[in-house]
Amino acid sequence: MPESNVTQRLISADFLTQSYRVVGKLQVPNTGVIGIVNDKTTSFMEVVDAKLAPIHMPTKLVGEYEIIDLVKANLFAICLTRREDVGPQALARGGYQKLVKYKIRATSQVYMLEGTLEWTGRFEFATIMVEGTRDFVPLYDATLTAILIPRLRIESPAILFNRRQVDLLGMVTDNK
């Protein structure tokens, strides 16, 4: 990893693509994970001490790597062990405005996510999916499940999902 003047720390995370789950550590600056994944100056990120398993066989380890590079555009989600690892709240929220918490469900061709979206303003699909330049959006107290492999289930205090890979996004209501 290149040396830098910026203070960095290692955080553990699960990285999910459409085909693989990578478990490893990411070196993050004070802007947290959200600062790295939404940085438009680079299209990849390095994960250290990485373990790789196919989604359809989540317990089968197919490789261990000292360093692995992941293409950010191909990531669906990053599951974090602590909410604080997302990054500074102003950066995660996109500003200092009043937040409304929405219970949502998002799906892709492979995964389903459920959790709390903290958003400024009312819930509107077009705004959430297109507003701003960030591709990754934080979801809190979230659960990720592989649609065809329900035993692949990750519960996390914070998941960053790639809004460019979402097929469906809806607000979950309590009345069923």
Overview of the structural elements:
By secondary structure, the chain is mostly beta strands. It has 3 helices and 10 strands; from the N terminus they run E-E-H-E-E-E-H-E-E-H-E-E-E. The protein folds into 2 domains: 9-83, SH3 type barrels; 85-171, SH3 type barrels (Roll). Strand 1 (9-17) and strand 2 form a beta hairpin. The protein has helices at residues 32-37, 89-93, 125-130, and strands at residues 9-17, 20-28, 44-54, 63-71, 75-80, 100-107, 111-119, 136-146, 153-162, 168-171. The termini are far apart. It has a 10-stranded antiparallel beta sheet.
The parts where pLDDT drops under 50 for at least 5 residues are none
Give the class from helix and strand content and strand pairing. mainly beta
Number of extended strands:
10
- Estimate the helix proportion, in percent: under 10%
Q: What is the class of the largest domain in the CATH system?
A: Mainly Beta
Mean pLDDT rating = 87
Strand order of the largest sheet: 4-3-2-1-5-9-8-7-6-10
